[in-house]
Hints:
The structure holds 2 protein chains of 2 kinds. By secondary structure, chain A is α/β, with parallel strands linked by helices. Chain A has helices at residues 18-33, 50-59, 61-65, 110-123, 140-151; strands spanning 40-46, 66-72, 78-84, 87-93, 96-97, 106-107, 129-134, 160-163, 170-173, 179-182. Chain A is built from 5 helices and 10 strands. The longest helix of chain A has 16 residues, at 18-33. Chain B is of the alpha/beta class. Chain B folds into 2 domains: 8-41, no CATH class; 60-172, no CATH class. Chain B is 33% helix and 20% strand. In chain B, strands 1-7-6-2-3-4-5 form a 7-stranded mixed β-sheet, with helices on one face. Chain B is elongated, with a radius of gyration of 30 Å. The interface between A and B is large, with 46 and 52 residues.
Amino acid sequence: MRIQRTRTDDSTFELNLAPMLDIIVSIVPMLLLSVVFVRITVVDTPVPQAVEQAVAAANEKNKDLVQVSMMVTKDRAVKITVVDRGQNKEFDVPGKLSATTTDGKVVVDLDALYQKAVAIKREYPDVFRMEFNPDESLPLEDLVVVMDQVRKLKSNETKVQFTDVTSGKPIETDLMFPDVVFGNVAGG
Amino acid sequence: MRFGRKRGMSAYIERRSPSTFKIQITSMVDMFVILLVFLLKSYSTSPVNVTPSDDLTLPASSSLKDPAENLKLVVSKAGIFVEDEKVLDLKDGRLDVAEVDASDTQFIRKLYEALDQQAKKSRDIASQNSELEFDGKVIMQADRSLPYEILRKVMYTSMLAGYSDVKIAVMLKE
Protein backbone atom coordinates (compact mmCIF):
# COMPACT_ATOMS: atom_id res chain seq x y z
CA MET A 1 0.00 0.00 0.00
CA ARG A 2 1.32 3.36 -0.83
CA ILE A 3 1.85 5.74 2.06
CA GLN A 4 0.28 9.08 1.47
CA ARG A 5 2.72 11.81 2.46
CA THR A 6 1.37 15.18 3.44
CA ARG A 7 3.30 18.18 2.39
CA THR A 8 4.82 20.02 5.35
CA ASP A 9 6.50 23.39 5.65
CA ASP A 10 10.21 23.74 5.89
CA SER A 11 11.42 22.79 9.41
CA THR A 12 13.80 25.77 9.64
CA PHE A 13 12.53 29.29 10.09
CA GLU A 14 13.96 32.68 10.92
CA LEU A 15 12.81 34.52 14.05
CA ASN A 16 12.11 38.22 13.56
CA LEU A 17 14.53 39.82 16.02
CA ALA A 18 14.07 43.41 14.89
CA PRO A 19 11.42 44.40 17.55
CA MET A 20 13.50 42.80 20.27
CA LEU A 21 16.51 44.74 19.12
CA ASP A 22 14.42 47.94 19.20
CA ILE A 23 13.50 47.36 22.85
CA ILE A 24 17.07 46.56 23.89
CA VAL A 25 18.42 49.62 22.11
CA SER A 26 15.93 51.77 24.08
CA ILE A 27 16.73 50.16 27.44
CA VAL A 28 20.54 50.20 27.14
CA PRO A 29 20.98 54.03 27.14
CA MET A 30 18.59 54.34 30.09
CA LEU A 31 20.56 51.78 32.09
CA LEU A 32 23.85 53.32 31.06
CA LEU A 33 22.74 56.61 32.61
CA SER A 34 21.91 55.01 35.95
CA VAL A 35 24.85 52.64 36.16
CA VAL A 36 27.03 52.87 39.28
CA PHE A 37 30.41 51.38 39.85
CA VAL A 38 30.82 52.62 43.43
CA ARG A 39 28.28 51.62 46.06
CA ILE A 40 27.52 54.29 48.64
CA THR A 41 26.53 53.28 52.15
CA VAL A 42 26.22 55.21 55.41
CA VAL A 43 27.72 55.10 58.89
CA ASP A 44 25.29 56.07 61.64
CA THR A 45 26.65 58.78 63.90
CA PRO A 46 23.82 60.37 65.86
CA VAL A 47 24.70 63.46 67.86
CA PRO A 48 23.86 63.24 71.57
CA GLN A 49 21.22 65.65 72.75
CA ALA A 50 20.77 66.49 76.41
CA VAL A 51 17.04 65.75 76.50
CA GLU A 52 17.22 62.75 74.25
CA GLN A 53 20.05 61.30 76.28
CA ALA A 54 18.19 61.82 79.54
CA VAL A 55 15.12 60.08 78.14
CA ALA A 56 17.22 57.26 76.72
CA ALA A 57 19.06 56.93 80.02
CA ALA A 58 15.84 56.77 81.98
CA ASN A 59 14.40 54.17 79.62
CA GLU A 60 17.44 52.00 79.48
CA LYS A 61 18.75 51.74 83.00
CA ASN A 62 20.86 48.73 82.24
CA LYS A 63 22.70 50.49 79.46
CA ASP A 64 23.47 53.42 81.70
CA LEU A 65 25.39 51.20 84.11
CA VAL A 66 28.15 50.52 81.62
CA GLN A 67 29.54 53.20 79.30
CA VAL A 68 32.31 52.71 76.80
CA SER A 69 34.16 55.68 75.37
CA MET A 70 37.07 55.87 72.97
CA MET A 71 39.48 58.75 72.55
CA VAL A 72 41.93 59.08 69.67
CA THR A 73 44.74 61.56 70.20
CA LYS A 74 46.75 63.64 67.72
CA ASP A 75 49.57 61.06 67.75
CA ARG A 76 47.10 58.26 66.87
CA ALA A 77 47.03 56.71 70.35
CA VAL A 78 43.68 55.22 71.32
CA LYS A 79 42.40 55.25 74.87
CA ILE A 80 39.28 53.21 75.64
CA THR A 81 37.55 53.90 78.94
CA VAL A 82 34.89 51.60 80.37
CA VAL A 83 32.81 53.01 83.21
CA ASP A 84 31.28 49.96 84.91
CA ARG A 85 28.89 51.03 87.69
CA GLY A 86 31.09 53.99 88.62
CA GLN A 87 34.34 52.05 88.31
CA ASN A 88 36.78 53.16 85.61
CA LYS A 89 38.78 50.73 83.47
CA GLU A 90 41.24 52.08 80.94
CA PHE A 91 42.78 50.40 77.93
CA ASP A 92 45.57 52.07 75.95
CA VAL A 93 46.55 51.35 72.36
CA PRO A 94 49.61 53.43 71.40
CA GLY A 95 50.10 54.51 67.78
CA LYS A 96 52.62 52.70 65.62
CA LEU A 97 54.86 53.55 62.68
CA SER A 98 53.20 53.04 59.33
CA ALA A 99 54.36 49.91 57.53
CA THR A 100 53.43 51.26 54.10
CA THR A 101 55.38 54.52 54.19
CA THR A 102 58.96 55.25 55.20
CA ASP A 103 58.47 58.88 56.25
CA GLY A 104 57.96 57.99 59.89
CA LYS A 105 54.19 58.49 59.79
CA VAL A 106 52.41 57.26 62.91
CA VAL A 107 49.11 55.44 62.41
CA VAL A 108 46.52 53.85 64.68
CA ASP A 109 47.49 50.27 65.61
CA LEU A 110 44.31 48.74 64.19
CA ASP A 111 45.08 45.12 65.10
CA ALA A 112 45.79 45.97 68.74
CA LEU A 113 42.67 48.17 68.83
CA TYR A 114 40.56 45.33 67.46
CA GLN A 115 41.93 42.88 70.06
CA LYS A 116 41.15 45.34 72.88
CA ALA A 117 37.65 45.99 71.50
CA VAL A 118 36.97 42.24 71.27
CA ALA A 119 38.14 41.74 74.88
CA ILE A 120 35.84 44.55 76.09
CA LYS A 121 32.93 43.20 74.06
CA ARG A 122 33.36 39.70 75.50
CA GLU A 123 33.28 41.20 79.00
CA TYR A 124 30.26 43.42 78.27
CA PRO A 125 28.30 41.61 75.51
CA ASP A 126 25.11 43.68 75.94
CA VAL A 127 26.79 47.06 75.38
CA PHE A 128 26.58 48.24 71.77
CA ARG A 129 27.06 51.96 72.14
CA MET A 130 30.43 53.65 72.14
CA GLU A 131 31.17 57.31 72.66
CA PHE A 132 33.81 58.52 70.26
CA ASN A 133 35.99 61.53 71.11
CA PRO A 134 38.57 62.03 68.38
CA ASP A 135 41.12 64.84 68.27
CA GLU A 136 40.16 67.80 66.07
CA SER A 137 43.14 67.41 63.76
CA LEU A 138 42.31 63.87 62.66
CA PRO A 139 40.99 63.47 59.09
CA LEU A 140 37.63 61.81 58.46
CA GLU A 141 39.35 58.89 56.73
CA ASP A 142 41.12 57.91 59.99
CA LEU A 143 37.91 58.24 62.00
CA VAL A 144 36.01 55.92 59.64
CA VAL A 145 38.80 53.33 59.79
CA VAL A 146 38.72 53.35 63.61
CA MET A 147 34.90 53.10 63.63
CA ASP A 148 35.07 50.17 61.19
CA GLN A 149 37.53 48.37 63.43
CA VAL A 150 35.21 48.36 66.46
CA ARG A 151 31.92 47.82 64.58
CA LYS A 152 31.97 44.11 63.88
CA LEU A 153 33.74 40.89 64.80
CA LYS A 154 35.80 39.32 62.03
CA SER A 155 34.26 36.27 60.38
CA ASN A 156 36.76 33.84 61.96
CA GLU A 157 35.89 34.95 65.52
CA THR A 158 33.30 33.17 67.64
CA LYS A 159 30.16 35.26 68.02
CA VAL A 160 29.20 37.12 71.17
CA GLN A 161 26.20 35.89 73.11
CA PHE A 162 23.89 38.14 75.13
CA THR A 163 20.41 37.90 76.61
CA ASP A 164 17.55 39.80 75.00
CA VAL A 165 15.95 42.05 77.65
CA THR A 166 12.40 41.71 76.28
CA SER A 167 12.22 38.00 75.48
CA GLY A 168 14.93 36.67 77.84
CA LYS A 169 16.32 34.48 75.08
CA PRO A 170 20.05 34.20 74.31
CA ILE A 171 21.08 35.91 71.06
CA GLU A 172 24.32 35.47 69.14
CA THR A 173 25.74 38.36 67.19
CA ASP A 174 28.90 39.46 65.42
CA LEU A 175 28.26 43.12 66.17
CA MET A 176 30.56 44.84 68.66
CA PHE A 177 29.95 48.57 68.87
CA PRO A 178 27.76 49.57 65.89
CA ASP A 179 26.30 52.66 67.64
CA VAL A 180 29.15 55.11 67.56
CA VAL A 181 28.25 58.53 68.93
CA PHE A 182 30.47 61.55 68.57
CA GLY A 183 30.56 62.53 72.21
CA ASN A 184 32.51 65.77 71.97
CA VAL A 185 30.31 67.51 69.38
CA ALA A 186 28.17 69.37 71.85
CA GLY A 187 30.76 71.09 74.01
CA GLY A 188 33.72 69.11 75.14
CA MET B 1 12.77 42.43 -31.55
CA ARG B 2 10.81 42.42 -28.30
CA PHE B 3 10.27 45.62 -26.34
CA GLY B 4 10.13 45.93 -22.51
CA ARG B 5 12.70 43.28 -21.79
CA LYS B 6 16.20 44.11 -20.64
CA ARG B 7 19.03 42.51 -22.31
CA GLY B 8 22.69 42.08 -21.83
CA MET B 9 24.56 42.95 -18.57
CA SER B 10 21.68 44.84 -16.87
CA ALA B 11 19.40 41.84 -17.20
CA TYR B 12 22.09 39.62 -15.76
CA ILE B 13 22.62 41.84 -12.67
CA GLU B 14 18.90 42.09 -12.00
CA ARG B 15 18.55 38.36 -12.15
CA ARG B 16 21.54 37.53 -9.95
CA SER B 17 21.22 40.06 -7.05
CA PRO B 18 17.82 41.21 -5.81
CA SER B 19 17.63 44.86 -4.58
CA THR B 20 16.48 43.92 -1.01
CA PHE B 21 18.59 41.98 1.46
CA LYS B 22 18.51 40.95 5.15
CA ILE B 23 21.10 41.85 7.75
CA GLN B 24 22.07 39.04 10.07
CA ILE B 25 21.21 40.58 13.49
CA THR B 26 21.27 37.47 15.69
CA SER B 27 24.85 38.07 16.84
CA MET B 28 24.05 41.73 17.54
CA VAL B 29 21.09 40.72 19.72
CA ASP B 30 23.35 38.26 21.57
CA MET B 31 25.79 41.07 22.32
CA PHE B 32 23.05 43.42 23.50
CA VAL B 33 21.54 40.80 25.81
CA ILE B 34 24.92 40.32 27.53
CA LEU B 35 25.27 44.08 27.86
CA LEU B 36 21.75 44.35 29.24
CA VAL B 37 22.42 41.76 31.95
CA PHE B 38 25.62 43.54 33.00
CA LEU B 39 23.88 46.93 33.17
CA LEU B 40 20.93 45.54 35.11
CA LYS B 41 23.38 44.12 37.65
CA SER B 42 24.98 47.51 38.24
CA TYR B 43 21.72 49.46 38.13
CA SER B 44 21.22 51.64 41.17
CA THR B 45 18.27 53.47 42.65
CA SER B 46 20.25 54.81 45.61
CA PRO B 47 19.07 58.22 46.86
CA VAL B 48 22.68 59.25 47.46
CA ASN B 49 24.35 60.39 44.29
CA VAL B 50 27.92 61.51 44.44
CA THR B 51 29.29 63.71 41.72
CA PRO B 52 32.95 62.80 41.48
CA SER B 53 35.32 65.72 41.86
CA ASP B 54 38.79 66.47 43.17
CA ASP B 55 37.26 68.21 46.18
CA LEU B 56 35.06 65.34 47.31
CA THR B 57 36.41 61.85 47.85
CA LEU B 58 34.39 59.78 50.28
CA PRO B 59 36.18 57.59 52.83
CA ALA B 60 36.03 53.81 52.38
CA SER B 61 34.22 51.71 54.96
CA SER B 62 32.94 48.19 55.50
CA SER B 63 29.51 49.46 56.61
CA LEU B 64 26.70 47.80 54.65
CA LYS B 65 23.87 50.10 55.70
CA ASP B 66 21.98 51.46 52.70
CA PRO B 67 21.20 55.17 52.70
CA ALA B 68 17.62 56.42 52.88
CA GLU B 69 16.08 59.56 51.43
CA ASN B 70 17.26 62.30 53.80
CA LEU B 71 18.58 65.84 53.69
CA LYS B 72 21.82 66.01 51.71
CA LEU B 73 24.70 67.91 53.25
CA VAL B 74 27.96 68.02 51.31
CA VAL B 75 31.21 69.14 52.91
CA SER B 76 33.89 69.23 50.23
CA LYS B 77 37.28 70.95 50.23
CA ALA B 78 35.73 73.77 48.20
CA GLY B 79 32.66 74.51 50.30
CA ILE B 80 29.60 73.41 52.23
CA PHE B 81 26.42 72.60 50.28
CA VAL B 82 22.88 71.97 51.52
CA GLU B 83 20.74 70.14 48.94
CA ASP B 84 23.25 71.07 46.19
CA GLU B 85 23.13 74.77 47.04
CA LYS B 86 26.39 76.34 48.13
CA VAL B 87 26.13 77.82 51.61
CA LEU B 88 29.71 78.90 52.21
CA ASP B 89 33.19 78.58 50.81
CA LEU B 90 36.07 76.61 52.23
CA LYS B 91 39.61 77.47 51.25
CA ASP B 92 41.34 74.14 50.65
CA GLY B 93 39.39 72.53 53.45
CA ARG B 94 39.81 75.45 55.85
CA LEU B 95 36.96 77.49 57.24
CA ASP B 96 37.26 81.28 57.26
CA VAL B 97 37.36 82.66 60.82
CA ALA B 98 34.73 85.26 59.88
CA GLU B 99 32.21 82.49 59.15
CA VAL B 100 32.32 81.19 62.71
CA ASP B 101 30.26 82.89 65.40
CA ALA B 102 32.37 85.04 67.74
CA SER B 103 30.59 83.94 70.92
CA ASP B 104 30.40 80.24 70.01
CA THR B 105 33.40 78.99 68.02
CA GLN B 106 31.58 75.81 66.97
CA PHE B 107 28.62 77.60 65.42
CA ILE B 108 28.48 78.37 61.67
CA ARG B 109 25.66 80.90 61.21
CA LYS B 110 25.22 80.63 57.42
CA LEU B 111 24.96 76.85 57.61
CA TYR B 112 22.51 77.13 60.49
CA GLU B 113 20.26 79.46 58.48
CA ALA B 114 20.25 77.13 55.47
CA LEU B 115 19.54 74.06 57.60
CA ASP B 116 16.92 75.87 59.64
CA GLN B 117 15.12 76.80 56.43
CA GLN B 118 15.15 73.15 55.34
CA ALA B 119 13.92 72.04 58.76
CA LYS B 120 11.03 74.53 58.63
CA LYS B 121 10.11 73.32 55.16
CA SER B 122 10.14 69.69 56.33
CA ARG B 123 8.09 70.54 59.42
CA ASP B 124 5.54 72.39 57.29
CA ILE B 125 5.20 69.39 55.00
CA ALA B 126 4.90 67.10 58.03
CA SER B 127 2.13 69.28 59.50
CA GLN B 128 0.13 68.97 56.26
CA ASN B 129 0.80 65.29 55.66
CA SER B 130 0.31 63.00 58.63
CA GLU B 131 2.21 60.19 56.92
CA LEU B 132 5.42 62.21 56.92
CA GLU B 133 7.41 63.03 60.01
CA PHE B 134 10.38 65.29 60.58
CA ASP B 135 13.03 62.93 61.95
CA GLY B 136 16.08 65.21 61.87
CA LYS B 137 18.16 62.84 59.75
CA VAL B 138 20.88 64.15 57.50
CA ILE B 139 23.33 62.38 55.19
CA MET B 140 26.70 64.07 55.31
CA GLN B 141 29.00 63.54 52.34
CA ALA B 142 32.38 64.74 53.50
CA ASP B 143 35.79 64.61 51.89
CA ARG B 144 38.01 62.03 53.53
CA SER B 145 40.91 64.44 54.11
CA LEU B 146 38.86 67.03 56.01
CA PRO B 147 39.84 67.36 59.67
CA TYR B 148 37.39 66.48 62.42
CA GLU B 149 37.57 70.13 63.52
CA ILE B 150 35.36 71.20 60.57
CA LEU B 151 33.08 68.17 60.73
CA ARG B 152 32.54 68.79 64.41
CA LYS B 153 31.44 72.36 63.70
CA VAL B 154 29.12 71.16 60.93
CA MET B 155 27.59 68.46 63.16
CA TYR B 156 27.19 70.89 66.06
CA THR B 157 25.44 73.46 63.83
CA SER B 158 23.17 70.83 62.26
CA MET B 159 22.27 69.58 65.75
CA LEU B 160 21.18 73.10 66.73
CA ALA B 161 19.11 73.36 63.54
CA GLY B 162 17.25 70.17 64.51
CA TYR B 163 19.25 67.64 62.49
CA SER B 164 20.73 65.55 65.27
CA ASP B 165 20.92 62.21 63.45
CA VAL B 166 23.95 62.58 61.20
CA LYS B 167 24.85 59.76 58.82
CA ILE B 168 28.24 59.83 57.16
CA ALA B 169 28.22 58.68 53.53
CA VAL B 170 31.02 56.26 52.71
CA MET B 171 32.16 54.15 49.78
CA LEU B 172 31.72 50.45 50.25
CA LYS B 173 35.08 48.72 50.60
CA GLU B 174 35.04 45.59 48.45
